[in-house]
Amino acid sequence: MSQPIARRRLLDEVTERILAHIRDEGLRPGDRLPSNRALSERFVVATPTLREALRRLEATGAVELRHGSGVYVRADLARMIMVNPNRLRLDRSAILDLLEARELIEPHIAEAAARNATDAQLDELAASLDAAGAALAEDSALHTANMNFHRILARLAGNGALAQVLDSLIELHDEEQRHILALYGDRDHDHQAHRAILTAVRGRHPRKARRLMTEHLRDVREVVTRALDQ
């Protein structure tokens, strides 16, 4: 049974114990934590202290507090880059900076995925595109599916640091990404570009995968830039 936590550094220690629980239980993003009451009893702390620790973890992106549902793991604890909760409001420069950063990173990711991904991983990538294809008429679901495609592709590249960088970029700039989807407009063309990238990666054509990802992101940047300038 857990021993009572000393008052000194109480909040820090509760936070650390929650993270240790997530790690030791092998919880993954989307998994639900025990109830606040159960965690309070486990760590021998008052419920208000536990709630404060959970709010701290929510601010750094480690967990998500869903009203009426519970607390869910949000981020992979192995990630080295955490999302800054103090984001500025959406603006033109943030959108264009995001697109430029992705254009620098993702072509290499596509090329590496074509070299390193297993067949089972490529099936997972294809499934994410199937989900996007079924959501072309619903922007919120389409946004989630599209971002999932890019996240999975980054993971398949085999470089954990790059995958974390892209994941953090996407999460930090979620509002900008949604605005980019609205500005780009052509859902079918965007989806077909993703399909072509998948085909190149599945066919083990690294250079073609890099070229197609470069062309895709450049096309998005050009269309969005024109829309913003209008």
UniProtKB/TrEMBL annotation:
Note one Pfam family from the annotation.
GntR
Q: Which domain of life is it from?
A: Bacteria
What does the UniProt keyword field contain?
DNA-binding, Transcription, Transcription regulation
In what residue span(s) does the HTH gntR-type domain sit? 8-76
The yes or no answer to whether the keyword Membrane is present is: no
Could you confirm whether the keyword DNA-binding appears in this record? Answer: yes
Q: Which PANTHER family match?
A: TRANSCRIPTIONAL REGULATOR, GNTR FAMILY, UXU OPERON TRANSCRIPTIONAL REGULATOR
What's the name of the protein? Transcriptional regulator
